[in-house]
């Protein structure tokens, strides 16, 4: 399984529990491209020093405001530039960095690892491998207790099939290690995670299946959907579960979009495999037939699938097969989304993949849940208690109880509103929900007992599991 990994962090945000996942990288490697000679070294040292001053956990840290690419984030052009997020309702697991790739990835999230395909958000240009862009970090990192261990090797399998493993002590150092080339080394990675008691968090799309799927660039959503078939998810999950079965590792499958993986998960659990899974608001509330050609605001990987698939996901959620419903928040600037209304081509193959769901996740899920007879208590369990338990924060987050953080919302379950992109609190207000009428509106949000001002400075802080 070709994977890339992001460290999993838990800084508090406007929702409870607040968890963000970010790309791994070395924020202190800025000097590496500063140029040759003493002048280049001095420039690199200054860049590293500036990075240190921005980052919590490093001398001079300035708190936990995430940042993206320096100039681009300040100008609001970086696809992961910080969002001025509004209330996300009863919590929801906050995914995706709103600050940038490679920044603050050295924080101590000691018991989690995340494996992702190297081209998770990247364009797939007509199936031509030579034109496909690789992710910034093409391996993965295991974060857990104990000393640093590095596993690597050239291996003999075909290029592009490898994983990279790194186990780091506290604090994380951002070092890179050679990428193993054989799928068997995924089992080695999971065996090490089992030893550490760590959680492997996996984006499940098998690149071998994706490489054989038809790659047709253009504006037709059905062509994009055919390029990311159900089989890519089920093949990746099947391979992961087999490795987990042999090693005893605990694994978690991210953003399940395909109901085809559900029987695999059921059988694995029956066999004693420690596996959990999640799904997302856009997979529960949107369907492929609702996606207009060229409207790349709907593009995400894995993709939004058909209506029958959506109903099977809802049934699995009702049956308790998903540990959580998470935002999978992945914002992007309009130019990266290639939206026609912003002068873009509307090419699904080339556009940025990801849906900005942080602000609208709760009302979107509540709208569909209510139609199906589910209660607000169930939604709170899916979007707040479940994520808190999953990441080991149930003692502080996810419930209204003495001793827990007072992360609350005043929610009007009967209020209806029409989504207007320009009124969102996102810095880049790109959303597939534009023009849709949703039910349920957040009136006020409290973070640790203090009302949140969406126009004020962020007050979140890093959470470390005890």
Automatic annotation (TrEMBL):
<feature type="compositionally biased region" description="Basic and acidic residues">
    <location>
        <begin position="111"/>
        <end position="120"/>
    </location>
</feature>
<feature type="compositionally biased region" description="Basic residues">
    <location>
        <begin position="121"/>
        <end position="135"/>
    </location>
</feature>
<dbReference type="GO" id="GO:0005737">
    <property type="term" value="C:cytoplasm"/>
</dbReference>
<dbReference type="GO" id="GO:0006145">
    <property type="term" value="P:purine nucleobase catabolic process"/>
</dbReference>
<feature type="compositionally biased region" description="Basic residues">
    <location>
        <begin position="101"/>
        <end position="110"/>
    </location>
</feature>
<dbReference type="InterPro" id="IPR011059">
    <property type="entry name" value="Metal-dep_hydrolase_composite"/>
</dbReference>
<feature type="region of interest" description="Disordered">
    <location>
        <begin position="1"/>
        <end position="136"/>
    </location>
</feature>
<dbReference type="GO" id="GO:0004038">
    <property type="term" value="F:allantoinase activity"/>
</dbReference>
<feature type="domain" description="Amidohydrolase-related">
    <location>
        <begin position="247"/>
        <end position="452"/>
    </location>
</feature>
<feature type="compositionally biased region" description="Gly residues">
    <location>
        <begin position="144"/>
        <end position="159"/>
    </location>
</feature>
<feature type="region of interest" description="Disordered">
    <location>
        <begin position="143"/>
        <end position="162"/>
    </location>
</feature>
<dbReference type="Pfam" id="PF01979">
    <property type="entry name" value="Amidohydro_1"/>
</dbReference>
<protein>
    <submittedName>
        <fullName>Allantoinase</fullName>
    </submittedName>
</protein>
<dbReference type="InterPro" id="IPR050138">
    <property type="entry name" value="DHOase/Allantoinase_Hydrolase"/>
</dbReference>
<dbReference type="InterPro" id="IPR006680">
    <property type="entry name" value="Amidohydro-rel"/>
</dbReference>
<feature type="compositionally biased region" description="Polar residues">
    <location>
        <begin position="1"/>
        <end position="11"/>
    </location>
</feature>
<dbReference type="InterPro" id="IPR032466">
    <property type="entry name" value="Metal_Hydrolase"/>
</dbReference>
<feature type="compositionally biased region" description="Basic residues">
    <location>
        <begin position="40"/>
        <end position="55"/>
    </location>
</feature>
